[in-house]
Amino acid sequence: MDRAEVDSRIRSLIEPFNKKGVTITDDTTFAGDLEFDSLTVMDFVAAIEDEFDIIISMNQQAEIEKYGQLVDAVCKLADD
Amino acid sequence: MSEGISQPDQPEPHPGEGKDLFSKFDSLIGQRQALLDSGLEDPFNLVMEKVLSPTRAICNGRETILLGTYNYMGMTFDPEVVAAGQKALADFGSGTTGSRVLNGTYQGHRECEDALREFYGMDHAMVFSTGYQANLGIISTIAGKGDYVVLDIDSHASIWDGCALGNAEIVPFKHNDIEAMEKRLRRIPEEAGKLVVLEGVYSMLGDIAPLKEMVAVAKKYGAMVLVDEAHSMGFIGENGRGVVETAGVIDDVDFIIGTFSKSVGTVGGFCVSNHPKFEIMRLVCRPYVFTASLPPSVVATAATSIRKLMHGSNKRAHLWENSRTLHAGLKELGFQLGTDTPESAIIAVIMPDLERGAAMWEALLKEGLYVNLARPPATPANMTLLRCSLCAEHSSEQVETILDMFERAGKATGIIG
C-alpha cells in the first residue's frame, strides 16, 4: 500500500476525533496539537487497527508522537 | 542545630536553580488546593481514630458507618481469625525479616498456601506480600519479550504496572467488549505467546466481565488466561471462588490472582494455578523474591479466614440481599448508578463532576457515612464516583439508614431533586 493511500485513509478516520478542526500535517502532534486524551487515543487507534487489520501495541504507540510517524508506522505494519 | 542567633545578612538560598522535578505535579497540586480552599474536608486524608466493628468506626471524630472498605465478608473482627493472629504473633514473632525464598517461609506461609489450594481446588498457590505485587510479579514474569498481553482498558493499576514492568507487547481492548478482544487476538502472530488478562469484578463500576464468552475466545486463539478475582473472592460463586465459578470457566483459566485485603480481611496477595511448571515462579518472579514475606500473624489470620470463607454461604446470601436493597433504593431515590442491576458488592454512584462529588462525599461523612470518592485518572471515562462497597455484616437496618443518609445528602447538595 503506498503512503499517499494510507495517508488519505487515516485523514478520513481522524476527522471525527479532530474536534477543533486542526489543520493536519506530518508534524501535527496528537497530545499537543490535537489534545488527544488517553480515551480518545484508544478509540482512534482501534479505528485505525480495524481499517488496516493491524495491531499497534502500546509499546509502538509510545514511539508515535506526530501524524507523519503514524502514517509511516501504519505503512510498515500493513506491509508486514 | 541552631544556636538561636539570627543572621539576617546571610544571602537567601535560591531554590530552583535546576529544574524542579516536582513541577510536573503542579496542576494536581492546584486542583487539590482549590478543593480544600472551598472548605471541604480532605477526602484523601481521612483518619479512623477507632474501629468499632467491620461496619462502624470513629472517623474524623464522628461515629461513622463504613460503606467503602471492601471488607465484604466482615472477617476483620472474627474471633477465630483474631485469635489465630494473636497466637502466631506470640509463637513466631512480629515479622520474618526475610524473602520467601530465603528465611521468610514459615509453617504459616505453607498453611496459608494449603488453604488457598483447597479453597480453589487447584494444584499450586503462591502467596505474595500484597495483591498489587501478585499482579505485578506474575504478569511481568510470564509475558516476556515477543509475547503479547491482551487486556481490558479498565484494568486495575497493578495489572497495568505489571505490563509496564515486563517486556511484552501490550494490547488493550475496549472494556468488556468481546468482539474487540477477539479482533486483537486474531491479528497477533499465531506463533507468539499470548496472555489475556481479565478481572472478575471491575472495581470502579462494580460490573462483572462476560468471562464465559471471553475465556472461550481466548482459548480459541491459544492464549493463556489470567483472571483477577480480587473483588469477588469469598462472595461470588457457590463456594466463593469468584466470577470464574459462576461462569463455569474455573477449569479453563490458567491463573487466578487474588488478595487478602478484601474478603479475607488482612493484607497479602496470591496466585493459584494448575500449570504443571508453576512452582518455578518462586525463583524467577522478582516481586516475590526481592521483598520480605508477610508477618506470621498475617498469614495465620489469612489461612483461618480463607477456611471459614469456604463455609460462608449464609453470609454470601445476606451480602447479596444488602447489595440488591441498596442498589434498588439508590435507583429509586434518583441516583445514577454504574450498573443497571447489582452485579457485585460494589455499587458506584455516578456524580456530575468532581466538585459536586466531593461536596456529596463530605455531606455523607457529616451524616456519618463513609464511601470512597473515586476520580480521574483512576476512573473510566473520567467519571467522578462515590463507590459503595457492602459488607455481609451490614444489618438490614444499617442499609435502610444508609439510604436515608443518601437521600438527605443528595437533596442538600442538589444531586437529586
Automatic annotation (TrEMBL), chain A:
InterPro entries: ACP, ACP-like_sf, PP-bd_ACP
Domain Carrier: 1-78
PROSITE patterns: CARRIER (PS50075)
Keyword annotations from UniProtKB, A to Z: Phosphopantetheine, Phosphoprotein
SUPFAM superfamilies, alphabetized: ACP-like (SSF47336)
Protein name (Swiss-Prot/TrEMBL): Carrier domain-containing protein
Source organism of the structure: Blastomonas marina
